[in-house]
Amino acid sequence: MADDDDTRSVVYIQSSGVDTPQRAATPFFLAATAAAMEWDVKIYFTINGPTLLKKGVAENLYVKKDGKNGKGAPLSHFIEQARDLGVELLCCQPSLDLNDLDYEELIDGVKMIGGAAFNSLAAKASAVVCF
Question: Rounded to two decimals, what is the model's pTM?
Answer without folding.
Answer: 0.90
